[in-house]
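seq as requested:
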Amino acid sequence: MGSWFAERLAKRGVDLLLLDKDRRRAIEIAERVGGQVINSLNEIPTGTPILLALPIDATIEVLDLLSKNMKRGLRIVEISSFKKPVRRQIVYARRRGHIVASIHPLFGPAQRDDRGTVTIHVGRISRSEDIIVRRLLPWTMIHRMTWSQHDKVMLVALSLTHFIGISSAHLLSRLVTLGVKTKSLDALLALISISLLEPDDFYNGYPMTSPEAIKLFRKYRDSVADMIYALERFNVANYVNNARRILSTRYDLDKLYKCFYAYSSDPRYLMCEK
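struct tokens:
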């Protein structure tokens, strides 16, 4: 998402300083959208807001360096997808006198701008955080969550969905080519496409390898085994009815179903917001 933010900020006339461990990536962004490539954190002028659009491990490392080596008063926004690994560094940076806003934009790089989007603001403690978040994302709808609330949601919304997508992709790749597509297959392919387009290091990172994620994947595996057992005994109705009853209290399933079938088979139109 780093290049997405760079492009949008450049269009708004913001002067960009670009720093990447792989200098070539920073140069590519600078050539495409403008901005100055710098070589170290020490080149960041005092008072310049800092956006950390990095993998979780790199976010931890950079927050440590900023907290220990820079004067108090930094304004930092970090956008990691899980907050438990970075929470200690965020709290430490705040104690050192820095403003750190921890957010999670719930949209991807195909988004034109932040209009109509949702962003989670996690562990917010001051109005100063609100100000720098709004400078970064002026139109997004902000939802606030605690650290634990956010990560609990993301285990399902991110880790589990990607696990289902990538495991389904693996299975489909081993089957013969299908001659037709159905609405159900379109829905599955949309999920698969999201999973397959993640960078390779995503599947080696915290969202997919944390103990909490592995525990959830094992629960999913057990659920699949239970479903197969019920199907073999023609006794799956209770599973379906119980799931329908519970999930209908959380989501408008009828609306989602009608919306899905109202659109074409193009996976870009599988989501209905209103």
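The radius of gyration is 21 Å.
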